[in-house]
Amino acid sequence: MRLYLDVGNTRAKWLLIRADQSSLDGLVNTEDFTALASQVDESAKNETLDGVFVSSVAGAATNDRIGAWVCNSYDLTPVFAEVEKCAFGVTVAYENIRNLGVDRWLALVAGRAGAPESQIIVDAGSALTVDYLSANGQHLGGFIVPGVNMMIGALFDRTDAVKVSAELSGADLLPGRDTAGCVRNGTLVILKGFLEKVWQIGRQINCDERFVLTGGDAGSLISLCEGFNVVVDPNLVFTGLKVYSDEYRLTNAQY
Predict the structure, then answer these.
(1) Which residues are catalytic?
(2) Across all residues in the chain, what is the average pLDDT?
(3) What phi, psi does 194 have (nearest 5°)?
(4) Which of the residues 33, 36, 129, 151 has an alpha carbon 20 to 30 A from that of 55?
């Protein structure tokens, strides 16, 4: 059995895959490390782990805790995926690849492995990231803007009168009739305009065969992408991490 961890700034997802490809998974807040460890330990208590692979953008302190937990509980050293300039059919546009989040890179790897087509990958997490990938695997760069929670949270944190929960349930593209409606609907309008421009640019640079949505808030964006060639894949980073782990095990026989 292998354990895969996708540790973001806000959420941490885990996935256990058995040899027969059956799986178990879960989701916790990144800051609640105890919940992450206990969920995995409980789910894997009658299993034997033979590998742990991690995508993490949460920082050194969290990564150190993951390393200590995996070592103490399973006598394994977790493998933290690292961005590579040219690998798995993807060539990264960044000159300094260390500045590209490993989750974005793994999403590109997964997109390339899933379909050798031009595509726009939109990851809706704490931040909303966009990456363009050509049909030949060339990363063409992208955009980073605040995610849904961050947009609404900015108003919550920086004003006295605007106190609205960071969610879009019930929001639409019409003018709001109260403060909550104004904030949520306004956020939706901003996101729609942004995504339409992202799609327009993709068409201009011949990178529009697929529009891939992933991340925790992907479901909130589907209705804003009418007319796009939308594919929703909430586990895109895990798919990329599995591609990475397969190659790692081929080149590291001891693991």
Answers:
(1) 103
(2) 90
(3) -65, -50
(4) 151
Q: Residue 134 has what DSSP assignment?
A: -
Model's pTM, two decimal places? 0.90
For the chain, give the percent of residues with pLDDT over 90: 70
Encoded amino acid at 135, one letter: A
Range list of β-strands (E), the chain: 2-7, 11-17, 23-29, 51-56, 79-80, 86-87, 90-91, 119-124, 127-133, 139-146, 210-214, 230-232
- The H-or-E segment that residue 251 falls in is helix 236-251
Contact in structure between 161 and 179 (CB atoms under 8 Å):
yes
| Structural class in CATH, domain 86-239 | alpha beta
Question: Quick check: 39 and 28 in contact, CB under 8 A?
Answer: yes
Residue 193: half-sphere exposure toward Cβ, Cα within 13 Å = 8
Cα(103)–Cα(198) distance, integer angstroms = 20
- Residue 120 identity (one-letter amino acid): I
The yes-or-no verdict on residue 163 having pLDDT over 60 is: no
Q: Write out pLDDT tens, residues 176-214.
A: 888 888 888 888 899 999 999 999 999 999 999 999 999
Location of structure tokens 């590998």: 51
Spell out the domain ranges in the chain: 2-80, 86-239
Q: Place domain 2-80 in its CATH homologous superfamily.
A: ATPase, nucleotide binding domain (3.30.420.40)
